[in-house]
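Office hours follow-up: a student asked to see two folded examples consecutively, so here they are.
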Amino acid sequence: MSKLLSANSRVSRFLQTFRSCPARGFSSVSLKGRSCLTLKDFTSEEIKKMLWVSADLKHRIKQENEYLPLLQGKSIAMIFEKRSTRTRTSTETGFALLGGHPCFLSTQDVHMGVNENTKDTARVLSGLCDIILARVYSHSTLEELDKEASIPIINGLSNLYHPIQILADFLTLQEHYGSLNGLTVSWIGTGNMVLHSFMMVAAKLGVHLKIATPKGYEPQKSVIEEAQRLSKQHGTQFVLTSDPMEAAHDTNVLVTDTWVSFEKEEEEAKKKRLKDFEGFQITMQTGSVAKPDWTFLHCLPRKTEEVDDEVFYSSRSLIFPEAANRKWTIMGLVVSLLTDYNPKIPMIKF
């Protein structure tokens, strides 16, 4: 079995993946003024530009100790209908690190949906802030915010997509493997917003995607159809199955997420769900049919039913670098939507 990279050697390998040639074509890609509700709306080149900017900020700030006040004088309104550890912390610390001011707004802080409609909230915040990140229950809330606001909207998580998580996941894999093109990612779990976002991005980065869900827990039909179209367009493999071991076979990356809702479920419903997911826990046995260099991702929070401790805390697990990269990819996304910034490092290898 190949020895996996240590944290320090991952950074070293990451830095070696910078291309010495100029990034012709990418410097001209501008995302300024756009919203990001789903990565379905972005091309391969645009997603790569987001990741390149994120890698650039991480290298210049973390490795070179540069101070980059790119968001000096700007503010972000952070609307959170759902609680959060990574999204809130990464956005607040990242925006502040770039010289901007983050403003956290929970359901106890704003009138949206209670004494004021979404339309009015969007218009008010457009006059007070430069960008809005919203973590909401319904994707339609984001769509209404985007329709009524005159500033960019970022999806911090909805019932349909979680784009900022996927940017962090792919930056983490790029750092670890040195490139993304040709990798196989296998999702073993439920068809949710994180999986939907994987499905909208993988093919655009040349990544093969295999999905195993129990029957009745598949991704949405419209998302499947779009993923199939993208796979055909970009020449990648896209597999749907109900067999976890089939999905894990010959893969580079095993990924899962929470099967049970973040919110409280009826005990009987929870028992049924756990029964439906029997055999879907990721273990070293699951990894035994994967490639020798297989790794593991989970967006957190995690329960042991989804992945056992042996895998979760092993050297194969990239979960903590993945969580840390939420900060750099949020920073990269916000900088891309608010400025015309072009990275100073050479283009990273995709």
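And the second, which I mentioned at the end of office hours:
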Amino acid sequence: MTAMRDEIARLAEASTHDLRIEWRRTHRTEPPASLSRDLLLRALAYALQERAQGGLNQTTKRMLAALSQKTGPGGGSAPGPEAALKPGVRLVREWRGEAHAVLVLEGGYEYQARRYRSLTQIAKLITGAHWSGPRFFGIAQLPGKARQVRPAPSPTAEDARHGQT
């Protein structure tokens, strides 16, 4: 364990050039050109720890591979804040003195007795401008916490300049 810490400390003091050499030795490939010194150092430290303590088990590797197929290039993206809303939830946003209510449905939303695929479509209909629907209705992902519904943001000076008050 001490030897690994000493090696990581040595890497932390190394130049970017030396880290790239270490990458070639460790991974037997060229390091990605866009990789910063900090990321090179972190990746090399992880490789040292992996060798000393073992890497991910096969089950975890399979699970990550399956997830990357779903969310990787061409595979879509991670679910957004809208995915956490349960059918039956009512979202209300006041806009220009008028309250706008949206009902969350299974696989969509209802606004003014019409069905829509996304909150962004509804936000654009209400404002006449492109808005992020989740942002317009105050839905946010808080780091390290469950998704929550927050009060919708108040119009800002920036909104006023663009006629969005």
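Two things to take away from it. Strands lie at 90-95, 98-105, 108-111, 114-116, 139-140, 148-149. Confidence is low (pLDDT under 50) at residues 142-149.
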